[in-house]
Amino acid sequence: MILLGCVSCEEEISIPLKSVASEIVIEGRVTNLNELQVVRISKTTDYFNPSVPSKISGAEVKIRDDDGIEWAFQETDPGVYVNGSLSGESGKEYTLEVRLDGRVIEGSSVMQTVVPLDSVRVEYFPGTRFAEPGYFVIIQFTDPPEEEPNYYRVKMYRGSQPNPVIMLLDDRLTNDNQMEFFLYGGSYLPGDTAIVELQTLDYKTYQYYYTLTNVLANDQQGATATPANPTTNLSGGVLGYFGAIALVRDTLIIEPVR
């Protein structure tokens, strides 16, 4: 009788949820490498109307350094702005400026010292009940003793495809030490091309990625924490980040262990 009474008390509750206006998202970086520097501008989509984020065209995009030198960016595809003559220098501060529909959006970042990779090697992992076997990349690098703190991101590619896992490090406990990092983000097969980037970040860029990983983890685990956006260094209430990133890149072809 108690069970029947509990069942009879069930009531379906409908909670009205509001749609949210789309917001501007800017993702931009400048590196020390002689390559195209890219700024992407788009808009978020509503939860109730999921679709490919719309790209924003017609913006005026430029980057300037702390000496006042400016580089203009050209739109090559909808929402994609590039410059091929800019390569960053360690110690300089770079400021992104975006002019869009009467708004001026800015963000700044200081390029850190380039930290080289001491070694990049591959080891075979036989697998377990919970993980597939495969070849994994292990990197080593030496943290600079004269600079503290340092913040790092390791980014992996399989050929031209980036791995979505965000791997972050800092030297709070390892200053002036050689650091070894097992790239757990994904295994490779013989014949695959593995590309590894070691990125040295300033604190503001590191904070963006750090809070982004927390947001993604909560979303994947179904956490009940109050939703929040990643920390941004951009003005004007927009989402995203701008980073001056000092990086090194290494490429290797995976060969089977003999």
Short overview:
With 258 residues, the chain is mainly beta. It contains 2 helices and 15 strands.
Q: What's the mean pLDDT score?
A: 86
Low-confidence stretches: 222-226
Alpha-carbon Rg, integer: 22 Å
Name of the level-1 CATH class of the largest domain: Mainly Beta
What is the count of distinct domains?
2
**Total number of helices:** 2
Please give the CATH architecture of the largest domain.
Sandwich
Number of DSSP-assigned strands: 15
CATH overall fold name of the largest domain: Immunoglobulin-like
Largest sheet: 12 strands, mixed
Give helix % range. Answer: 10-25%
User: What is the string of helix and strand elements?
Assistant: HEEEEEEEEEEEEEEHE
Helix/strand/pairing category: mainly beta
Query: CA-to-CA gap between the ends?
Result: 70 Å
Give the overall silhouette. globular
Instruction: Give the amount of beta strand, in percent.
Output: 35-45%
Give the SSE map:
Blueprint: H1 2-8, E1 24-31, E2 37-43, E3 60-65, E4 70-77, E5 80-83, E6 93-100, E7 103-110, E8 117-125, E9 134-142, E10 151-158, E11 161-162, E12 167-170, E13 178-182, E14 193-201, H2 203-221, E15 239-253
Parallel strand pairs: 1-15
Antiparallel strand pairs: 1-2, 2-5, 3-4, 3-6, 4-5, 6-7, 8-9, 9-13, 10-11, 10-12, 10-14, 14-15
